[in-house]
Amino acid sequence: MKKRKGLFVTLFLLITVCLFTSCSKENKMEFSNMSGTSFYDCDIWFWNSEDPSDGAIGYENAGNVMMGETGEVTKLGEYCNVNAKDASGRMVMSKIMKAYDGMKIYKSDLF
Description:
Blueprint: H1 2-22, E1 28-34, E2 39-47, E3 56-65, E4 70-74, E5 79-85, E6 91-93, E7 97-98, E8 103-106
Parallel strand pairs: 1-8
Antiparallel strand pairs: 1-4, 2-3, 2-5, 5-6, 5-7
């Protein structure tokens, strides 16, 4: 009986550890391109504040994110901006804004 109880406790602990490690939440952030411009070679730059003089933390490449599509990156900071190219190869940039999962980028956010 004691062996069964010990086996049950061991299995319970093993399953609990597996569940917690497999459910570890990465800092994924989805964003939607609602700007009316397709983003090619899109980089999302991350910042600790809205002040660009503080310097960027780093960036994540989101690839090509067409109009109305959603891209996904790993969130590296509390604020972000978009740097990409449009269909003619010109640089498209957004203002620095609060980074959150499900954010939408509109034409008014672009320079």
